[in-house]
Design goal:
Radius of gyration: 23 Å
Strand content: 25-35%
Bound molecules: nicotinamide-adenine-dinucleotide
Structural class: alpha/beta
Largest sheet: 10 strands, mixed
CATH superfamily of the largest domain: Dihydrodipicolinate Reductase, domain 2
Number of domains: 2
């Protein structure tokens, strides 16, 4: 496909204008039209981009604007109907995260796109971040050793949503980064949180993801925090990485720090942890706007008919984890376990991140009424029980000598 692709963006609220700006800046596409219900937003867009057609009716936008591709930046509940209408009208689709309000909706969109030979891609922007890609390379090169756990914090005051909780709003970023870095899906998910401002809409959540080989990740998301925080710590057996996305410079720092327990010991007195404190350093990463890379990738995937890095399969896995988090929240934090299908060979050109296995929820561990696992099946390895065992061990640490 040599000609410029005609692109239209629906949703000119908070995030849409960033997509509009980036698509307008790309050489091999033509930002042809934008759509919003708000005439005021359309007027504003027209003042910035006078050459762009404006529509306040989505059906007319799809039928009359002569588009090859549609970018959906509306609220999550509209993702499925709007994407479906666009695909059925023969348009390629880029939809904001999360892909849809349920995994069944994601499957439906993937199936329609596949049957019509169209590209569907999801705006998991951080997979296009040079910083995140650098972290992935550092991990894959073995510089941090075996990953032990990842902890992520994404906090701010607002923006409060009415139809989704904070996990659905903010955690998709962290989930997508964690799956990308670890190259696999969790085997267990649980989530607790609080609805402090709006009844029934959780504004603070903590997700726990359990992975194979005893690895785990926690994701703390909040709309109720005075400081904007976007932080991730990746703890490896050899080194640790701290990624601070809010920092102007030095967004990643690698710490040569680790703790080892002795391979064997006979008496309690012989037991000493070995603490290693080394240098820390900041790798150079060339800054480039991730969203611009994402928008270009969408155009490239359409032109070359390749599967996007953040394609439907990857994005559906994120939605499945969010679904599991809602289930767990409703059951006071009870774990939701997944069956993990074997990883399939990459269907792509090699641009894709390590393939993650398909996630299939299999069971929800019954609770004993206070949110604790009752110890059935995989639930016996629940975070709750695992944590308490560790807490005891770390008590020992305090009495151990620090070198
Ligand atoms: N990738 C990121 O970093 C990132 C950041 C923020 C938001 N987002 C995602 O972007 C999407 C939009 O979020 P937002 O914060 O911009 O929402 P928003 O509410 O600010 O904007 C949505 C816009 O859609 C318009 N709209 C609603 N119904 C419509 C209809 N039927 N036809 C045409 N227009 C309609 C509204 O008028 C509004 O202007 C969400 O999926 C969100 O998760 C992604």
């Amino acid at each position: 496909m040599g000609a410029k692709l005609n692109v239209g963006v629906v949703g000119c609220g908070y995030w849409g204008p960033n997509l509009i700006r980036n698509f307008n800046s790309l050489h091999d596409c033509n930002l042809k039209a934008v759509c919003d219900l708000s005439v005021e937003r359309l007027r504003h867009m027209q003042s910035l981009y006078p050459h762009v057609e404006v529509y306040n009716d989505y059906t007319r936008f799809l039928e009359d604007a002569g588009l090859d591709a549609v970018v959906v930046a509306t609220s999550v509940r509209l993702h499925h109907p709007m994407c479906k209408a666009a695909l059925l009208a023969g348009k390629h689709v880029l939809v904001e995260k999360p892909m849809a309000a349920s995994s069944a909706e994601c499957d439906d969109l993937e199936q329609i796109a596949r049957s019509k030979g169209l590209t569907i891609m999801v705006g998991h922007t951080f997979l296009y971040s040079p910083i995140v890609r650098r972290i992935k390379k550092i991990v894959d090169d073995g510089d941090v050793g075996e990953i032990r756990y990842i902890s992520a914090r994404r906090l701010n005051l607002g923006l409060f949503q009415k139809d989704i909780n904070v996990a659905w709003d903010l955690a998709p970023h962290d989930i997508s980064i964690i799956l990308y870095i670890l190259g696999e899906n969790p085997i267990s998910v649980n989530c607790r949180g609080g609805a402090n401002v709006s009844k029934n809409v959780h504004d603070v959540t903590t997700l726990w993801l359990g992975f194979s080989r005893n690895r785990s990740a926690t994701i703390h998301s909040s709309w109720l925090d005075p400081r904007k925080t976007r932080e991730m710590t990746i703890v490896g057996s050899k080194r640790m990485i701290v990624y601070d996305d809010v920092a102007n410079q030095d967004k990643i720092r690698i710490y040569d720090a680790r703790v080892e327990s002795p391979p064997h010991y006979d008496t309690f007195a012989e037991f000493h942890y070995a603490y290693h404190y080394g240098d820390s350093y900041v790798p150079y990463v060339r800054q480039e706007e991730p969203l611009k890379i994402e928008c270009q990738h969408f155009i490239d995937c359409i032109k070359t008919k390749t599967e996007p890095i953040s394609g439907a399969r990857q994005a559906r896995n994120v939605v499945r984890i969010l679904e599991a988090s809602s289930l767990s929240l409703a059951r006071d934090g009870a774990p939701v376990d997944f069956a993990v299908a074997p990883a399939k060979p990459a269907e792509t050109t090699g641009q894709a991140p390590a393939q993650v296995a398909e996630v299939v929820p299999i069971a929800n561990v019954a609770t004993n009424g206070d949110g604790q696992s009752n110890g059935h099946g995989r639930g016996s390895k629940s975070p709750a029980t695992g944590r308490s065992r560790k807490a005891k061990t770390s008590g020992t640490t305090k009495s151990a000598a620090r070198p």
